[in-house]
Fold this protein.
Amino acid sequence: MARKRARRYRSRREAEREHPLLHQDNLVPLENFADLLGDYEFPKLEYVRCQLIDAGGKCHKLHGWGWIAQLKNESEGYIGHDCAEEHFGGDPRFAAVFTAAAERVDKEITIGLLEAALRPLIDDPSMPDRLNDVKRRWRQLYDRAANLPGQLTEPLRKELSARRKQASLDVVINVIQVETEIDENKRERKIVTRHPTRWGVLSGLQALDIRPLGKIGLRLDDAGAAIRQAVISGDQSKDTLSKWLADLQYIERADQALKQHEANLLAFCRPDNLKLLWLLFSGRFEQLSAIRVALEIISRKRVMDDEVATTREAWAQEIKAANGGSEFNTAH
């Protein structure tokens, strides 16, 4: 009769039900070892004694993590992981045989776990529709995100890229305070001080990098291939099963990743965030160019030069009013 694939057992009842020749009374002499049939991780209340016997006698160590060993007479016994590696590893007559058996059991258990995780995904009839929905959202988001950098000026793209890399998101202005000082000769002297003030914090800059979105698209293509190809036939390799499982599980993770990208794009395109862009520059031309970008993203239409200039004056007045009428300049 063909040997059953090795598996992992979580309770003694489960292990002994499937292995009727497995008894705590059996002894496992090193020289009678034949094979490993599985492993186990038992709760503390179900710990067992190691049944290994070497030249020094019976191990008898209480443990919950170990191997189910088969002897040459086909009886079976419990041996602890640490005990087996210590005793077999220290005896060159049996080390290679045990190592080969342990590697095979580990591989079979891993394949069994992969198949168990993969089966409900393969059998889920809604999986293709879920993938199509995620891919549709991805395409819409990718088109919007890919279009965004092209709406920015070159100086603005460079400035925002640098700030994203440096995690420098504070937008700081210098509020100018002018005080009059009268000396002993009653002469007036103007004292000008500049107070750095955080006016806002840039948000959503991650939306300007579409490379992560590109990677999501590739992973979704892999998920589509897995839906078409994945099958549990009993002869699939561990690597193949692992890839199929990762590809199908990614559909759910892609949904969460897209939500984050959508949130970043929404945050960047908020009017209050776009109103900060012009304050990243000291030159009037760059400021006006940044204001034009903000207005066109907000309105989704071209704006005229006079509207840009009027907007700059209005936004500057807002800042002055919030600072008691004081003048200001950018701290770029």
Notes: The chain has a mean pLDDT of 91.
